[in-house]
Fold each of these.
Amino acid sequence: MAQKVRLTVAQALVKFLGVQYSESDGEQHKLFAGCFGIFGHGNVAGIGQALLQAELEQPDALPYILGRNEQAMVHTAVAYARMQNRLQTYAVSTSVGPGATNMLTGAALATINRLPVLLLPADTFAGRSASPLLQELELPDSGDVTVNDAFRPVSRYFDRIWRPEQLPAALISAMRVLTDPAETGAVTLCFPQDVQAEAHDWPRSMFEKRVWHVARPLPETAMLEAAAAVIRSAKKPLIVAGGGLHYSRATDALAWFCEATGIPVGQSQAGKGTLVYDHPQCLGAIGSTGTTAANAIARDADVVIGIGTRYSDFTTASRTAFQNPDVRFVNINVVGMDVIKHAGIGIQADARETLQALLPMLDGYSVDQSYSRSIAELNATWDETVRRAYLPATQRATDEVSAASARSADEVLAASARSAGLLTQSEVIGMVNELSDPRDVVVCAAGSMPGDLHKLWRTRDPKGYHVEYGYSCMGYEVAGGLGVRLACPDRDVFVMVGDGSYLMMATELATAVQEGIKIITVLVQNHGYASIGSLSESLGSQRFGTRYRYRNPETGRLDGEKLPIDLAANAASFGLEVFRASTAAEFADAIKAAKAATESVVIHVETDPLSSGPDSESWWDVPVSETSTLDSTRHARTTYEQHKATQRLFV
Ligand SMILES: Cc1ncc(C[n+]2csc(CCOP(=O)(O)OP(=O)(O)O)c2C)c(N)n1
Ligand SMILES: [Mg+2]
């Protein structure tokens, strides 16, 4: 057999991707479930031809899916990778210019969330025979810069295949980074249009099945001992659980560790589900959108054990969550830059391996009974808060009046009158939670829902909660939901999307219809940005520019009537079944019908934008103007300065 095989660069790329596998715990997975794409002149003849040839000759090697928006295709791939614990992803092929740069936001999202995705933007001619091309960036001072160079800071590996000979080395480097737990993120390989179509003689070995082992770096004994000594000294320890625990598949190890030691767990957005909501050591969400239980424990904790967390500002309440003057940190993470955070004792290793090695070293250690009792009490209080938040607004009002912590009856009645007829967002979340199956997945990314879901969603399965909050990107929701469902066709996927996010990118509903992929989209209409509106109000900016209203000819401002936009009709235009729910009963019926459906469904529900979820007793650092002509801003600045004074840097 000839040692060489003659193929174009694009054909070689597609053939290579089809035989890559990841391996973890002895199990192999196809690294690329397929390739998303949108064709333009930059990729239609090269990579497009190669994908066509592959579809006809080997349909399962790298199935092609046509998306509607390049950014959205990256979201879908990333959501899929997250559900598959980073062992599988998709490639995404685009044209040159705008098709390529449309992926930049997706690339940043992947890299920030540390999720693998292979981006294949086309690039302008290596040979420059016809420059400047349609959509080519021309710079007077450099000849080798294209718009694709913008991918460099948001990619964990970036390469441009100027010559066919470069391809094998570039592909090997790309696969290594995609399957490296510490380095993974967006990997970008740019393919100049002319090079894609160029033929070359490739070594046959390049197209043999290749298995990429996903490493579990082991902890060093000395660091384990140092960590064990600190934990043993702790009276009020707390674990901060991040997404790394999921990717390491360490959730069982975490449960054993907590049960043996009694150490409670607060969860970041990515770490939610690492313990199920009713596990005795689960304090739920921590930080700016946390539960009062997790935040009370965090305030006094003397040892904080961060596992697989980046300690984002939301997780640490902008570094105000931990107020014990003697607090110390132990950080377990595969990523070096996370291990050193908060001047912690760092174990740069796999979470599961580390928990398994650490547990015997803590033999005989347990938190004392009074600490366990206060954990149980705090959890019971929060559970009651959630129960009340799930109630219909009117019922909640009466319920709250009778509760010991009730505000004045007048206030409660005013609140319920204001929201008369409209469901509250907490109620909507509660109904979705109660009417979904434990293994179903809730998906969200931006707006007021991520915070409410973080606090209120009762996660009953480790993978049942999927909120993208590394980049909190409006428009992720529908596209991400598609990726989740592709990864888990046996779970229903509830995409919770605000009207703002829906308007930004609902396009992949078309892809869902095209592919017959079922997602249940709960479209929460509140006529603008409830999230940024309430943030704006709290910062003295009076909800400026956060409502979807007509420009008022009398005031010249955006304070006219509500826009008549009908998003339910818009959703129906995709060829989907749409339910309009305005009462709790209608909403419940719609969820039941959606569960029974075999195709994608949209549930349109209008909610009260002014009714917010329960308080986290926490803070988020968003600086307020130091000087202002507005009273609202001056008051907010005073409050800001009070909070700012409690920030602790731990250097
Ligand atoms: C792409 C993008 N642009 C802007 C923002 C800032 N932002 C965060 S939430 C939000 C409003 C979201 O509105 P909607 O989806 O209606 O949710 P709601 O706030 O009403 O719950 C904005 C503009 C963002 N997160 N992502
Ligand atoms: Mg909204």
Amino acid sequence: MEKLITINSIDDILPAYRQTPIGLLLEYHNLNRPLETFDKAQLLVGMCMDNRKHLHMPDNFAFIIRSGGANLRYSEFKVSYAIAVGQVSHIALIGHNNCGMVNLISRKTEFINGLVTIAGWEKERAKEHFMHFAPMFEIGSETDFILSETKRLRLRYPKVIIAPLFYLVDDNKLYIIEEN
Ligand SMILES: [Zn+2]
């Protein structure tokens, strides 16, 4: 796994993110900075749909797009909207450990059976559904995926500042994923 930078003080926040909405997010969530009042969004957060995560930040502070694995490849119009209409120029892309999108293929049987018993799908249709979509959402490793998604988004939106972050579900803290 890539190295995670622990944020225990403002000095731990990389200079590139300090005094930006990304640094503010880290201060609110990790350092208990008092919540300020905002009348418009300051950044876009892309994070996994996983239920174990909750961000501590002020109302109105961020647009949030939640998707399996924090994968924004299929949410591009929403990303563009937050930038163009919402006027945010910072994105925090937040992966997390124990993500269900890693080794998704191992959950094939569970997925198909769940759609049959809980949703009332035909087994064959559930199987096709899984086989069609699983390759689009499968991620190899949580940190590698966030780094590659960060690179892709930086190319797509060159003037936007994008930070690869990580949420550890064990301590509910945010970390910066170190880039080399
Ligand atoms: Zn996840």
Amino acid sequence: MARVSQRLQRIPGSATLAISTRAREMRAEGRDVISFGAGEPDFPTPEHIVAAAQRAANDPANHHYSANAGLQPLREAIVEYTQAHSGVPVDPSQVLVTTGAKQAIFQAFAALLDPGDEVLLPAPHWVTYPSGIDLAGGVTVSVPTAMENGFKVTVEVLERYRTEKTSLLVFVSPSNPTGAVYTAEEAGAIGHWAAANGIWVLADEIYQRLVYQDEDVAPSIAGVNADLEDCLLVNGVAKSFAMTGWRVGWMIGPDDVVGAAARHQSHATGNVNNVAQMAALAALTGAQDTVVAMREAFNKRRQTMVAMLSGAEGIELAEPHGAFYVFPKVTALLSPSYPTTLALAEALLEEAGIAVVPGESFGAPGFIRLSYALSDADLERGVSRMLEVFGRL
Ligand SMILES: Cc1ncc(COP(=O)(O)O)c(C=O)c1O
């Protein structure tokens, strides 16, 4: 008899974490590794947030269990933040604070899906969604997008994949891994289609403030659609405030579903770490200039990366407008020696000390994901070294 349940046998480890771990190991062995694998800002958490956490750690009120759904001042701050950035009016009772957006996503699937329910997931997609859907008993229906269309789905394409079992659409803008950002008009049309067809929307807005065009926030599918009631918003402090390690995210939605997710959480983890919640409170309510400064730094790196990759032999690129990733197509570089992007990524890491994430992890073989959340010097050195290796293939 198998020692591990069939359910968990089907769940692969996170490929992005595996690459970062291998890159760290190689560095510990003294190798010069430049990693484009990171899914997190390279900046430290802003000082005023760390100071708030230090104060919170000294306060015995934070040494004990607290409300499962989150500290009330934080839930209230999340309400203000959501109104300001997503344009959605909500009540604190609709907010569930979670251990990172990841826990919100897993709990959202657990709260919404029954066995056999189909979830439309535009591909390329972030590695974690299919595992959450599978563990909740749902079925992932991957909806392909094309680089030529900026990796975005349209109502027309979604409609082709809709069946009577379709219960949920996962909508991520800006997207990991493609950096695609939907306009208000595009998000509006998709939200309207979902509402008209009784399909729930899980809107992952974790990168909403990392956008590099005219606006300083990505349009929220819930904010631009008054008729979209069956929608869960997922967000957190990880990416905008360089707080990935603090593990604070949240989910917002209708009372019944958020209440069900809260019951799930009350058994799984209970309240999120109080000190981290107080740090998140300082992030949301404090000065926002560090967010702007980080965004400007990412934008500069994005431009450098795009300039260096554009026109390089064997690489095709759609300019990303959000998050901190570029997602070039490299099929022209594949060969019998490196038949897949997985093989190419392994060779790049072992032979040249360059870590990239292969497209297979995102349901997009033939592509690689490069994060530009690394120092300017490493970025330029790393891309040059990678292009040198590609030139020799
Ligand atoms: C699209 C997306 N959503 C959610 C997360 C996870 O966020 P958190 O660190 O808050 O769990 C990530 C992290 O890479 C992500 O890329």
